[in-house]
Amino acid sequence: MATRDDAPIGALCWVDLMTSDTDGARSFYGEVFGWDAQEPSPEFGGYFNFTKDGVLTAGCMAKPSDNPMPDAWTTYLATRDARATIGTAEANGGQVYVPAMDVGDLGTMAVIADPGGSMIGMWEPKVHRGFGRYGEPGTPGWFDMQTRDYDACVTFYREVFGWTTNTLSDTPEFRYTTLKVGEEELAGIMDAAAFLPEGVPAHWTIVFAVDDTDASLAQIVSLGGAVVNPAADSPYGRLANASDPTGATFGLISGG
C-alpha cells in the first residue's frame, strides 16, 4: 500500500473511463472495487470522480453518441508542463490526439500516441493532484503496455517523460522494461510483437489491485462483465484481465 500527495514526474498519476453508460459504471465499479461516485460536474461536461474511502481514485465521463471508439480506460502521466511535453513528444515520433487544454484550475491535460500507437494521456497537476493511493485493494496496482515497437517506445518514454528505466528481461522470448522511481517500479513496457493479435492495437492497461482475483472475476461476471484472460499465477501476484458490461477492459492483481 502507498499513499502520495503528488505523483513523481513521468509516473502514472490518473485514470479515467469513457463509457456509454455512466449510471451502469457507477454501480458496477462501486460493487467490484468499493468505490463511491461523486456528483457529475456540469462545468466539465458531466465528468465525475470515483473515490475509495474518501480518496480520489479514478474519473468517469460519458462517451459522446457520435464517438465510434469503444468504451475504454485512459491512463495519464504526470508532467510539469503539458504544452512543452507535447512538443517533445512530437519531436520523438509521437502523435497528438488532444492538444493541451486547461481544465479550470484543476490542471492541464493532453492525449498523445507514442511511436508504437499506444494512446497515453498527460496531466499537469494544479488543484487536482491525481489518485492518492495505489497498490491496495480497489486502487491502481500496476500499469502495463504491450507494443510492437518496443525499442522505440522505451526510448520515447525516457526522452519525453524522463523515465528512469530498468530492463527486467531482454531475451527473445521475453523483453520487458519498467519505470523505476527510486527503488520502486511503477509501470512496465512489454515487447508484444510476437503475440499481440492482428488487429489489436498497442495499448496501455490499468491493473487494479484486489483482495482475491478469482473472487473478483466471479463478481464481475455476475454483474454483466466478462473474463478476457482468466486468472493465472505470476511472480508478481495472481493476474487476470476483464471487461465491464460495456466492454471497457482492465486488469486485476492480488497477492504478490
What do you see in this structure?
This protein is of the alpha+beta class and 256 residues long. Helix content is 17%, strand content 46%. α2 (82-91) runs antiparallel to α3. It is globular and about 40 Å long.
Summarize the structure.
The chain is α+β, with helices and mostly antiparallel strands and 256 residues long. Helices cover 17% and strands 46% of the residues.
The poorly predicted ranges are none
Biggest pleated-sheet summary? 8 strands, mixed
Label the structural class.
Answer: alpha+beta
Please tell me the overall pLDDT. Answer: 95
| Amount of beta strand | over 45%
Distance between the termini: 12 Å
Question: Which term fits the overall shape?
Answer: globular
Question: Any descriptors?
Answer:
alpha+beta; 8-stranded mixed beta sheet; 17% helix; globular
List the helices and strands and how they pair.
Blueprint: E1 2-3, E2 12-19, H1 22-33, E3 36-37, E4 48-52, E5 55-62, E6 72-78, H2 82-91, E7 95-103, E8 107-113, E9 119-125, E10 133-134, E11 140-147, H3 150-161, E12 165-171, E13 174-181, E14 184-191, E15 203-209, H4 213-222, E16 226-234, E17 237-243, E18 249-254
Parallel strand pairs: 2-5, 6-9, 11-14, 15-18
Antiparallel strand pairs: 1-10, 2-6, 3-4, 4-5, 7-8, 8-9, 11-15, 12-13, 13-14, 16-17, 17-18
Helix pairs in contact: 2-3
